[in-house]
Please model this.
Amino acid sequence: MTQFNTWRAATLMIVALFATTACSKKADETVVATDSLAMGGPPVTSPLRVSAVETGKALEADKSIDDDMKDFGARDTVYVAVKTEGTGTGTLAAKWTFQDGQTVGQSSQSIAPTGDAWHEFHVRKASAWPKGNYKVEITLNGSPAGSKDFTVK
Model:
């Protein structure tokens, strides 16, 4: 009977060792299978999109706005910074309008960011801007992507 218990204990230890090893390998395989960089595959990227639109009187070195604001003077240059996230190529455009719907400026630029990036547009006028409400509308590849209202006082 002692020999039977020893054999039984040895069998249980082998089964437990096998189960532990099998579970460990499965956990390792799951980590490897979901880690595309470790496998040498391309990094996971997200599609290009606009994530922020800011207006201000000055830009930082990275083309972001120094101080996001919505009130401007009649002789100010108005900057808009557009933050994109993701990767891809496309056309970013800005259309500036006065409160009556009149277009006061528009421009576009081709972009090809490889990650988060800021893009700059600006509008200025040789004479004073009429006081009132304005809007800048941003499109990405022709589709609305954001807007910002501002006022000239």
